[in-house]
Amino acid sequence: MLRSFFVSSVLLLAASLSAQQAVTLIPYPTTLTPGQGTFTFDATTRLRTASVAQRQVADFFTEQYARATGWDLNGPGRGGKTITVKQDTSLGDEAYRLQVAEEGITLDAGSLHALVYGLQTLRQLLPPEFEDSTATSDVDWSVPQLTIDDEPRFAWRGLMLDVSRHFFPVEYIKETIDRMAFLKLNTLHWHLVDDQGWRIEIKQYPRLTEVGAWRVDQEDVAWNARATNDPEEEATYGGYYTQADIADVVDYAWRRGITVVPEIEMPAHVMSAIAAYPWLSCFEDTIAVPSGGVWPITQIYCAGKESTFTFLEDVLTEVMALFPSRYIHVGGDEATKTNWELCPHCQRRIEAEGLAGTAELQSYFIRRMERFLSDHGRTLLGWDEILEGGLAPGATVMSWRGMQGGWEASKAGHDVVMTPTSHAYFDYYQGNPDYEPTAFGAFTYLETVYGFEPTLDSMSQAQRDHVLGGQANLWSEYVPTPEHSEYMLYPRLWATAEVLWSPQAARDWDDFSARTRRMMGRFDRMGVNYAGSAYQVRLDATSDLAAPSVTLELNSEFPDTRIHYTLDGSPVTADSPRYTDPLVLRETTPVQAAVFEAGERMTPPSEATFTFHAAANAQPAYTPGYHEAYSGQGDGTLVNLLRGSKNFHDGQWLGWLNTDVDMVLDLRASRKIESVEVGFLESQGAGIYYPTDLTVAVSNDGKTFREVGTFHRAPADNPDATIADFGVTFPAQDARYLRVRVKHGRSWLFVDEVTVR
Ligand code: ACM
Ligand code: ZN
Prior knowledge:
This protein is an alpha/beta fold. The chain has four domains: 19-150, 2-Layer Sandwich (Chitobiase, domain 2), CATH 3.30.379.10; 156-501, TIM Barrel, CATH 3.20.20.80; 536-610, Immunoglobulin-like, CATH 2.60.40; 619-756, Jelly Rolls. The structure holds acetamide (ACM) and zinc ion. Residues 333-334, 383, 400 line the site of acetamide (ACM).
């Protein structure tokens, strides 16, 4: 309904504006009523505010305006046309009304923060040159005449930045806050504590940052392959924020409509604190700050000793003095409680408090913290593990292991923030890993993020009312630099912002895609290293094995892109054939394809060779059968001419768990063959390993097999997801049957194709 209105409004605007000034608002406003004509800024345009506070929050807009235009909205004299800002308390707290007319602009805002949002809308209406750091002449500084009435759908519109796994300087935190404000996000969840670094200065416990903020530099080693550090070894990688830094960031954020919520993890994800003060743990082991992945996390705070709680209350007292936010996040996730099972202090606590076990001990721990925070007028926020063993009264739950925790907590009358891994985890890949920097081995595509819905159909109205909103989380194990962080955040954060701000009925992927593509030009001018992954061409293939043929569709995640391709191994260019209809391949073909815009290639070319081989459409038999969870396209998966990708849920992989595999292929007729290659995936982090041995035998009657070759490889550490073909070649011979025995070390075996030549 709203959408069809929007389409016609764009057409109207387009008639009165140059093409690049077509309205590109993200998040899309609640209502937009187009007018005729434009308002044009000039050197005499002035901002009229009613208070010093209004002027201060307007600085975020006026300072950039001055850089880009060379003009001063706060300049001397009465000036010419005006932007008049008024606070209107009849509007909702985050609501604003922006009216652009020929003679002037008025902005009525429900609060200072709503004023920030209204000015950010005005910014997005201005030409992209507004983002330039120096003034350019001959820009037409016009905005379309219109009226926008706008307010957010959800009150919690967040981003979590993990600054522990890699440390990010204050300057980058501020840049990110600027971009959040641009998107009308209002909550920065600052993950300041984790195993691999304690990042906040605490005056009473200086070793937290003297020791806990630094680790041995193993940045050249893959995250999960990093060695355990010796506590005596020199620790040089890291950093922390002084309390002055924190106060500066909190104030900077507030002036941009953003509340900073600190996360002080407990009882797990605190090896950095234990490295600083071993007495915080059950057995007081001397440990180093780890440089990389630790799993499971068994070095956690002792829940028995009173000194642990004194420490945490001291820390939280300093934290509350720095952060005026209502919410204080205490983590609570992923504690493995084996030490608590063994620790006399913890066991004494369990007995004294009449607890059923260590799950209830964690609940006791969080309840104590909840009481402490609520006594100080704050609200405890924790990951959904805080539901286990009983949820503390007054606690707010951040649901990350899906939405179920949020469903349960809201049912019990608690507020919740939804941030499920499926839609909100930005440490996951956003495109084909072949063309992406190493990420956590799961997938959160732009369209997936845009499909995030923070409420569930199965929720009552009362439960829905407890859903404060949602947020995106950027864990930084695989994100070492600001540039890389930008790549993971944008454009996915644009989608999060629209999901959380705009009316649900306005959700329209095609329209969002079009605005996203235009918004990229603005982010180019900001100098942001956003990802173009949604332009990467997908080679979506199906096979007809009777023919045999492969039908290939070329798609990008963005709809309606201009795709060019080659089928002869030559590099794809803007002059290569343009893709319109599915391609039918009938012989071995190397494919290259890419999206082009204005003659420019938008991503690296996507490449694959479709190999037509002698086992296509063979009749396979597997002993034992493959695992039901990884059954691909069924028995024919390994002879369907289609290869798997590093997304092992793509339907092209068969999986076996903890077993060797014996495969027999009936080629349906005797053929001359001389090589057999089998495709495997290895992703040790996901428990998937290459085989150690292959034995290939051939037969003409399916009964008597003769061995033609063996392959052996030693198991090796491999921190990345990789795909490889292993096989044997042998003197050419006639055979109808083929037997491949795969010997496997451990855990999962994943196979996508048996290529026979
Ligand atoms: C989490 O991802 N461990 C909250
Ligand atoms: Zn203990």
